[in-house]
Amino acid sequence: MGYVTAVPHPRSEPAFVRSGRRSLALALLSGALGAAVALLATRQRWSEGTASVAGGAFPLTAKGSDVTGVPAALAVVGLAALVAVFAVRRSGRVLVAVLLALSGAGTVAAALFGAYDSSALDDKAAEASGDTSATVDALSHTGWPYVAAVGGALILLAGLLALRYGRLWPGMSGRYERDGTPRQRRAKPVDPDRPEDMWKALDRGEDPTGPDPI
Which residues, in sequence order, are CB contacts of 137 under 8 Å at separation 6+? Predict the structure, then answer.
């Protein structure tokens, strides 16, 4: 005769719970990392060249923020949207997830357009030479615009994960239980000899003449 044990067998988590946890961790990692990468890349040198001045060739450089401010701005918006995903529910979460995805897509597009932009260096060449029609010579670009585009792609990935699995993620608010119903407030004791306490209880929707809470 075999032995009977009273120890219950551990139950495995449902597949949708595991998917929700994995997608949440991946979205947080990719969104935060993507915003950091995009912001870092916009502070680096994107292009360089020379301007012809009286003393010869004058070297010029342009950072990503000189070329375009769109990637940095959208990275900040994406980071804020990533946090806001957990502060809203249902349709609000879907809207914020769409904003997160659009921020990533916009960052990618702006970074790729900026990779071939020369207007920032042309403006610097005109300022250095004193000739408004002057343009930059020997123009070259670095790889930092593409790094910013990678950051935008990570933000886009976070947005797509939020759209697909956001309904499985928990929210920030502690006022509600997991099933979404409000928690019951425990009634405060009311002193019948203090009229102000009775009025406050009525304002809260409580019955001051009822039994004392346990």
Answer: 49, 50, 51, 52, 57, 125
